[in-house]
From TrEMBL:
Signal peptide from the UniProt entry: 1-32
Location of region: Disordered: 47-100
Descriptive protein name: Lipoprotein
Keywords: Signal
Organism of origin: Thermobispora bispora (strain ATCC 19993 / DSM 43833 / CBS 139.67 / JCM 10125 / KCTC 9307 / NBRC 14880 / R51)
Start-end of Low complexity biased regions: 47-56
């Protein structure tokens, strides 16, 4: 605010000086002083222009509809939670990168290369019949993560290692230990919803959620 006032004072001072000279020149009464029109322009500060030109991407803020919930942490989220977990401070403008350390209720979407998996947070949405489904953030939302899968990752499948069984407990999460290769195959060939544990920017544990 101080810089704007300093810049605005120069045109105002010039106007005052000009009006003073005009008044003095008309003191003789012989000739009327000419009419002078002066336009004073306010100059925006450089900081304001920079702020307008360079938006700063941030993690999504909670929406009015309550779709965004608590941040990702080391505490296991509700398996069928109805809000998306957030990652405050994550800069989504710098490409896809790992989420903060903690447990993400999410969908492992695809493999970006032989080791790196892409994943997004999900929330549970019920329909009027009482059944439900997992929902990803809306199209166009930047909340997408990717992290390498640890060589010793723990994968507990809800459908067995071959995909034909039902291997869950009373919480509807997987109990069958399967290999890293089987995890990658499931990511590439099916919709895999899971509790995804990230530590040191790597995926170290995947506990599949059963979705009938």
């Amino acid at each position: 605010m101080i810089s704007r006032l300093a810049r605005g004072s120069a045109p105002a001072a010039a106007l005052a000086a000009l009006l003073s000279l005009t008044a003095c020149s008309g003191g003789g009464g012989a000739t009327a002083a000419p009419t002078v029109t002066v336009t004073v322009t306010a100059y925006p500060s450089a900081g304001a222009a920079d702020d307008a030109a360079t938006p700063t991407p941030t993690a999504p803020s909670p929406s009015p509809g309550g779709e965004w919930g608590p941040p990702i942490s080391g505490q296991e989220p509700p398996i069928f939670g109805t809000t998306f977990q957030t990652d405050p401070g994550h800069d989504f403008s710098k490409g896809v990168s790992p989420s903060r350390d903690g447990i993400v209720r999410g969908r492992l979407r695809t493999m970006l290369d032989a080791d790196v998996a892409e994943y997004v947070p999900v929330r549970w949405v019920e329909n009027p019949t009482g059944r439900g489904r997992f929902e990803e953030p809306p199209e166009g939302d930047a909340t997408v993560f990717a992290a390498p899968i640890h060589p010793g990752v723990v994968f507990l499948s809800a459908y067995g290692c071959t995909g034909g069984d039902q291997t869950i407990n009373d919480r509807y999460v997987g109990t069958e230990p399967c290999s890293r290769d089987q995890l990658i195959s499931r990511i590439e060939n099916s919709e895999l919803y899971a509790l995804i544990t990230v530590s040191g920017a790597r995926i170290v544990k995947v506990v599949e959620i059963y979705t009938p």
